[in-house]
Design a protein that fits this description.
Length: 194
């Protein structure tokens, strides 16, 4: 079965014209092929999140005759509007993530509802060396970018910490982000030439 989707971010009351165009094409392709057209909300950018914008987007699509086969429920939207991230850095040590039942996320249409699933795969990529922990805060990151040559790939000073050093920082509650290990990607897949 053909499944298409549109995944706008709830960052304003009005839909971007590019999202509207994509939604129209996706909707028509799904309907032409007796498929499903799905609305998924990309609400992971909490700094730019605008309360009420999800319902505004749905209303706009309805006014234009673009109907979704699957979409977030009103309860899901309400929970998203009040979502407060509650993740500690220790998730990276959580072995329960490995046994997470993925089928329980098939009817989740808001990104933050799928967070445990994303953490499961982030942990796996981290353990396999595709990602590494970076403990720079935003000010430190900006300083490094200012003194780095233009177009030079960013390399965190934490990239080469050993496992014990990383685990100690995480155990102490130091905040981190996971960054892509570009060197490993180039080694495995070759350099991308545009």
């Amino acid at each position: 079965m053909v499944k298409t989707r549109i995944a706008p971010s709830p960052t304003g009351k009005n839909i971007h014209i590019g999202n509207l165009r994509t939604a129209l094409f996706s909707y028509m392709w799904a309907k032409k092929n007796n498929g499903e057209f799905i609305l998924r909300i990309e609400d992971t950018d909490r700094k730019r999140f605008v309360p009420g914008s999800t319902q505004s987007l749905i209303d706009t699509f309805n006014e234009l005759g673009i109907k979704f086969d699957k979409f977030p429920s009103k309860q899901d939207i309400c929970e998203m509007e009040n979502f407060v991230p509650n993740i500690t850095n220790n998730w990276i040590f959580d072995n329960k993530l490995e046994n997470l039942d993925e089928s329980s996320f098939s009817e989740k249409f808001i990104q933050t509802q799928r967070l445990p699933l994303y953490l499961k795969y982030a942990k796996k990529l981290y353990e396999e060396g595709w990602l590494y922990a970076c403990f720079l805060d935003s000010d430190e990151l900006e300083q490094i970018k200012k003194v780095s040559p233009k177009f030079q790939p960013f390399c965190s000073p934490h990239k080469y910490l050993n496992t014990e050093e990383i685990n100690e920082k995480i155990s102490k509650g130091e905040n981190f982000v996971l960054r892509l290990n570009v060197e490993k990607c180039i080694k495995e897949f070759g350099r991308y030439l545009d």
